[in-house]
């Protein structure tokens, strides 16, 4: 199985490049951000609780997102692999993901981290906020909070995969196609 974690700060291009990966490798896309936004638009109690945190730029509790991923893995038993987009975002989530995959006789093949500087991230998110109306993309203070959450809780997840020799970086600035070519080069090595 080919299981890829696509990693990077908010706005690095994870969602964008996940689409390219799905098209080329026919993997199942699991984006915790998308799943949470789905819960919000369906008005579930999980969605209502998550919305408060997401609108403030804060992470949703580990047990909530781990439960969501566990359900999705169970629902996709025949998948030939997964792209994990925006998950794991804490070391506890990374450990839980390893356990879930072990129970399916599988493992993470590699983490690909997209590297983008802060100024560019803020520019992209504010531009998307204008187009999409996504509440967490519209306010520079909330974007700052998301980057702080990334720095204090998420960045260390890279060390977790580095320790397993599963960590790869790709420059995330430039054309979407050019960045994808470099991502695909890493994926070919993993596959
Ligand atoms: P996400 O939905 O994961 O949001 P994100 O980090 O902003 O990444 P996204 O994938 O959407 O953006 P992308 O970089 O593709 O999370 C939202 C919130 O959900 C979190 O803040 C948190 O509250 C919660 N959450 C989600 N997962 C969680 C977890 N595991 N644990 C706890 N909480 C969780 O794209 C950004 C913009 O850049 C786009 O407009 C795109 O068009 C543009 N772009 C992309 N590539 C470009 C390029 N090369 N050049 C120019 N623009 C580009």
Automatic annotation (TrEMBL):
ATP binds at residues 11-16, 128, 174. Keywords: ATP-binding, Cytoplasm, Kinase, Nucleotide biosynthesis, Nucleotide-binding, Transferase. Pathway: Purine metabolism; AMP biosynthesis via salvage pathway; AMP from ADP: step 1/1. AMP binds at residues 32, 37, 58-60, 86-89, 93, 134, 146. GO terms for cellular component: cytoplasm. It is found in: Cytoplasm. GO terms for biological process: AMP salvage. It is an enzyme of class 2 (transferase). It comes from the Bacteria. Catalyzes the reversible transfer of the terminal phosphate group between ATP and AMP. Plays an important role in cellular energy homeostasis and in adenine nucleotide metabolism. Belongs to the adenylate kinase family. Consists of three domains, a large central CORE domain and two small peripheral domains, NMPbind and LID, which undergo movements during catalysis. The LID domain closes over the site of phosphoryl transfer upon ATP binding. Assembling and dissambling the active center during each catalytic cycle provides an effective means to prevent ATP hydrolysis. This is Adenylate kinase. The gene is adk.
